[in-house]
Specification:
Elements lengths: L1 H22 L4 H53 L4 E5 L2 E5 L1 H6 L6 H4 L13 H12 L8 E6 L5 E10 L8 E8 L8 H6 L2 H7 L3 E5 L5 E4 L2 H6 L3 H4 L13 H12 L5 E9 L5 E10 L10 E7 L1 H21 L1
Antiparallel strand pairs: 1-2, 1-5, 3-4, 4-5, 6-7, 6-10, 8-9, 9-10
Helix pairs in contact: 1-2
Length: 332
């Protein structure tokens, strides 16, 4: 407010000087008239600004109060929720938490996501489902069953998820909503009756082949005891570690390329021979057979598979090759 009055006063003084130079004012009466006009302009401008200033102050203070509240809600979502979540204002993204960015492979891209339409992150075929979910949430309704929505990852793959949308405030003029999702697998779990009748865990534990499961990042989530028997690594010590780190350096590039093609949904299965390294560094030839847990092409997915010990086969092949070379040398 003070800066506006000061500016008006300066402009009035400049007006006084310019008007005086134009008319070469010499008489006291004319000088007094000019000064009176300048003072009147200053007072009139100050009065107008005094009337307008409360309206401007009320509007700006209200905006300043609303912005910190939205920022506070965003921080609360980030600290309170471990599952992927985003704050939406209608269809516009206002905030995303760290698990949201990590799950979609968008770490460090929060500035690009905030402010964009949320439909840019949803598979086009599921836009209608999102619209229905948004309409129900805007009316204060919550579905008992989650809605299946495919979310786009940073690498272009889709992540099928169970999604929910709830209003953050009951105010009818506020459109802030909380979007949460949980990645799901296309495969349906075994029923309780099946598990009680058939103890498949004991069979998996007794298999000579290594049975493994990887998440979409290629980290180990399950290993059967055959892993420890072959490599002497404790199963618990290997969980949540990259599977490729346990293979021979010469085999890593090809193995990593094959596994990435599976997790990104570019392939549904693969078979590859590679050398697993034991805890003492001894190579163990294995044949890996892996497949995705999703039946849809292009969906980001986890991996299940087996690794079979083929050391005896490799030793037999090496013996046959040595005998063949010895025979060729004798004949020559």
């Amino acid at each position: 407010m003070a800066i506006f009055i000061f500016s008006t006063l300066i402009i009035s003084i400049i007006f006084l000087l310019v008007l005086g130079s134009w008319y070469s004012i010499q008489g006291p009466f004319l000088s007094h008239v000019v000064m009176l006009v300048a003072a009147a302009v200053t007072i009139f401008s100050a009065a107008v600004l005094t009337l307008i200033q409360p309206l401007y102050t009320t509007k700006s203070s209200r905006a300043r109060r609303e912005l910190p509240q939205e920022a506070t809600w965003g921080r609360e979502v980030s600290s309170a929720l471990s599952s992927p979540a985003a704050v939406l204002d209608g269809y516009i993204v206002k905030f995303v938490n760290t698990p949201f960015l990590q799950t979609l492979g968008m770490v460090g891209m929060a500035d690009q996501i905030i402010g964009m339409p949320f439909t840019n992150l949803i598979h086009p075929a599921d836009h209608q489902d999102l619209a229905e979910l948004t309409a129900e949430a805007s009316m204060g309704k919550t579905k008992s069953d989650p809605t299946k929505i495919r979310i786009l990852c940073a690498d272009g793959t889709t992540l099928p998820s169970n999604a929910s949308l709830t209003r953050m405030r009951e105010d009818s003029q506020n459109n802030l909503m909380l979007f949460q999702f949980t990645p799901i697998s296309i495969l349906s779990p075994l029923s309780d009756d099946y598990e009680s009748q058939f103890n498949y865990h004991s069979i998996i534990d007794r298999l000579e082949e290594i049975v493994f499961q990887l998440n979409a990042e290629g980290k180990i989530t399950f290993l059967n005891p055959s892993w420890e028997k072959m490599l002497e690594y404790k199963v618990q010590d290997c969980l949540d570690k990259m599977l490729v780190d346990f293979f021979h350096p010469e085999d890593k590039p090809l193995l990593e390329a094959r596994l990435n093609s599976l997790t990104q949904g570019k392939r549904t299965n693969c078979t590859i021979e590679a050398r697993l390294l034991s805890v003492r560094g001894d190579p163990n030839w294995t044949v890996m057979r892996a497949k995705t847990t999703s039946i849809s092409i292009g969906e980001r997915t986890s991996i299940i598979g087996t690794m079979t010990d083929i050391r005896h086969n490799k030793e037999a092949e090496a013996t046959q090759l040595a005998n063949r070379r010895a025979l060729n040398s004798l004949l020559s």
